[in-house]
Design goal:
This protein is an alpha/beta fold. The chain is 56% helix and 7% strand. The protein has 2 domains: 127 residues, Rossmann fold; 167 residues, Hypothetical protein af1432, CATH 1.10.3210. The structure holds fe (ii) ion.
Length: 367
């Protein structure tokens, strides 16, 4: 039931209009001037206000402006004794919905109030929808955030689990993947890569030897030179690692890096003998970090060479086997920043390309 406020300084008009409206099933209240109307409007919500124009102190036009500002959805109808075009225009300019001429004709009154109440009903419905929409939006956003966090957690745990699985079968290289991932990520940061690229590189490092799960552990831990067949099997770990990671649909660049972590700039690496720009820019961090970590650590078939020998290796093959800027970044880390190999499993959020635009600026563009 719509609620109407009648504002007029003439009692007979207030009484007549109230009776007309109540007979037509409206709830009607009256005010004998604009001040009283303003007080009522503050206390309760009206769908329609019908106001006289000429009243003592505050005019009907001023009341229209006031209602527009304080209750923008409430529709105002002006009653005027002089229904000229000017009065009508002034009323509309002030924000009135319509005007009705005095003396008031019951049918015109009910028709105009009916239309105004309908408009008010529509804007109420619109606001209700907006509120529902807003609530839905906030609920949805909160849900997406919760699910995203859960997804990140699951991916992080999966990376950590896969990384441990390989090392459980190859105790001699325990911590190798984490040290490679952390070093490669530090080198990428040194060259100003975005956080997204750094995270992808770190994860690729943590998983780069995953393919070794297809290599028998007695070959992995054989304390002697491998036969050509055994060597071929060991080398196939780069291919198997790439295939396994592709199956779980981590970002493509991660499986690409894993596939290429034994390639060399001059094409002398394996499994595909890629050269120069055929190798992804991101993979160079893994290539250099893998060599440095492997040389500085103990292996079943040889003792550790130490970090100095590892740095000498990348320095002497800078630009031939290893990408120059990546080599320089690695040397800067160890020699200037006193970097230490670190086997901490650092948690990252893989954004699957939804984070900031990826960029690596190490002189070799990604394919
Ligand atoms: Fe490897």
């Amino acid at each position: 039931m719509s609620k109407v406020l009648i504002v007029d300084d003439e009692k007979s008009i207030r009484v007549t209009l109230k009776a007309f409206l109540e007979n037509a099933d409206y709830t009607a209240e009256v005010a004998e001037n604009a001040q009283e109307a303003k007080v009522k409007l503050k206390q309760e919500e009206f769908d329609v206000v019908i106001t006289d124009v000429i009243m003592p102190r505050i005019s009907g036009m001023e009341l229209v402006e006031d209602v527009r500002a304080s209750s923008p959805d409430t529709q105002v109808i002006i009653m005027t004794g002089e229904p000229t075009v000017e009065t009508a225009m002034e009323a509309v300019r002030a924000g009135a919905y319509d005007y009705i001429p005095k003396p008031i004709n019951k049918d015109i009154l009910l028709k105009t109030v009916g239309q105004a109440a309908h408009i008010k009903g529509l804007s109420d419905a619109k606001r209700r929808l907006e509120r529902i929409n807003q609530n839905y939006q906030s609920t949805l956003e909160a849900m997406v955030e919760r699910r995203t966090k859960a997804l990140y957690r699951a991916v992080r745990n999966m990376v950590s689990l896969l990384s441990k699985v390989v090392e459980m079968r190859d105790l001699y290289t325990s911590g190798h993947q984490r040290r490679v991932g952390n070093l490669a990520a530090a080198m990428a940061r040194e060259l100003g890569a975005s956080q997204e690229v750094i995270d992808d590189i770190r994860v690729a490092g943590y998983l780069h030897d995953l393919g070794k799960i297809v290599v028998p552990s007695e070959i992995l831990s054989k304390p002697a030179i491998l036969t050509p067949e055994e060597m071929q099997l060991v080398q196939s770990h780069a291919i198997y690692g790439m295939r396994l990671i592709k199956e779980v649909e981590l970002p493509d660049i991660i499986s690409d890096m894993i596939y290429e972590h034994h390639e060399r700039l001059d094409g002398s690496g394996y499994p595909r003998g890629l050269a120069g720009t055929e190798i992804h820019a991101e993979a160079h961090f893994l290539i250099v970090a893998n060599v440095v970590e492997a040389m500085s650590s103990h292996r079943p078939y040889r003792p550790a060479h130490g970090i100095q020998a590892a740095l000498a290796e990348i320095r002497s093959n800078r630009g031939r086997l290893y990408q120059p800027e990546v080599v320089d970044a690695c040397i800067r880390l160890f020699e200037e920043q006193k970097y230490q190999l670190d086997d901490t499993m650092i948690q990252v959020n893989l954004t699957f390309g939804l984070g900031a635009a990826a960029s690596v600026d190490n002189g070799v563009r990604a394919k």
